[in-house]
Amino acid sequence: MRTAHEEVERYLDTVCSQVKAKEMHVEIRRELGCHIEDLVADKVEEGESEDQATVWALVQMGDPVQLGKGLHQVHKPRIPWGILAAMVLFSAISLLAMGSVEASSEGAMGEIGFMRNQGVYIVMGMVLMLGMYFIDVRKLKKYSWLLYALTLFGVFAKIGWDTEINGTGRWFVMGPFSIDFVACSPYFFVAALAGIFSKQKLMGKQSIFFNDILKILALLVPSFLFIQVRSYPELVIYILSSLAVYGWVSRRRWTTLFISGLYLSGGLIYLWNSPYLRERLSNRFSYTHDPNGNGYIYVKIKEALSSAGWSGHGFGAHQGNLPYVYADMLPIYLIRCFGWGGGLLLAALVVWFLIKLIAALHAVRNPYGKTLIVALGGMLFLRLLYGLSLWSGSMLVVSLPFPFLSYGSHVLIEYAAVGLLLGIYRRKDMLPEVQLPAAQ
């Protein structure tokens, strides 16, 4: 004859057998076990024996199979349809934009096949997104230092190896495809930092102070590499994203503000001692003094924005002498083609996408998953915000393609980042709030 304890264990085994999210079994057993113990204790106080009280408690709990099926529905994978729908719309807009660029291009530019190539990049990106969707992010956390080291090595390699495209040695070439590794590296760095900052101890039993210093050094080192390769847009994006991750994990407001102050003071000193950067800023704020030279691009931006109206000049509109309309200037060209009406629709889509990311952040319980959403979501937010800010006509123009829309292989890492975010949301009800070891 089974004891009361064995009956309870058998009941819990039956419940958990219906729940496929094995990571939740410990938490389910603990919560149900505590509830059963409370019911048994109440009945024992009324004078029942422990065995009789246990039988009564299990009857009150209900059929274990049905209870387990109900818990499975609670803890089954979730799909963030809002984010997925936004990605489909971004893909469609990107193809439409590349079709318009292709229709308006002349000579050698018209033979590149922007729409066809972008379609290939999008399909590859979706494959990556699907693959990242099924990754267990807890296992990714274990390899945070490895990811950090490999990214450092990759940027170092680009400093020493000069595979130049458009005059810059920052590309990895793989057959017919090339990828700007330096531009993609901030994604890898902040994803690695999300895991590094989330670890209580980085190097065994070292002091808390030593671990804090190590985390701050891990945050600072990539900045010097971006300065070395003069990748200033990526530097700014990285600084803002990494500080957000550090502040989110550490909850140390004053330390975060102190590091921000170091960055700001160092940046101002560097700017003051860099004639190139001072000239870039001067050209932006005094572009009317040299409209046919250094201020030319800002004059053309103003012309494109002021002449677009609400409906624009239509699909395949003349590029208006805007450079790089397929990449950095794509937001401006979209206004030229489809007007401010089209621009408002794109802005609404961006806002919708960001709202869904924020909703995912609040829905996810796992601390490391939340940190990754802050890291990668923050990176995408800053890039999207910069792209839309070009519509003001007052933003400094830098080489920073619009996420998901602009032409090029950068969409691969962006789709992969979204896939990882989708995967985090997918498992939001399948992981306990308290971090447990990943299943082997």
Automatic annotation (TrEMBL):
Which controlled-vocabulary keywords does the entry list?
Cell cycle, Cell division, Cell shape, Membrane, Transmembrane, Transmembrane helix
Q: Which InterPro entries match?
A: FtsW/RodA, Perm_prefix_1
- Would the keyword Membrane be found if you checked this record's keyword annotation? yes
The GO terms this record gives for MF are: lipid-linked peptidoglycan transporter activity
Q: Does this UniProt record's set of keywords contain Ion transport?
A: no
The lineage's top-level taxon is Bacteria
Provide the primary localization.
membrane
Q: What is the recorded name of this protein?
A: Cell division protein FtsW
Any one Gene Ontology cellular component term annotated for this protein? cell division site
Q: Topology in the membrane?
A: Multi-pass membrane protein
Location in the cell reads:
Membrane
One GO BP:
regulation of cell shape
Q: Which residues cross the membrane?
A: 79-98, 118-136, 143-161, 173-196, 208-226, 232-249, 256-273, 333-359, 371-392, 404-425
Q: Which PANTHER family match?
A: CELL CYCLE PROTEIN (PTHR30474), PEPTIDOGLYCAN GLYCOSYLTRANSFERASE MRDB (PTHR30474:SF1)
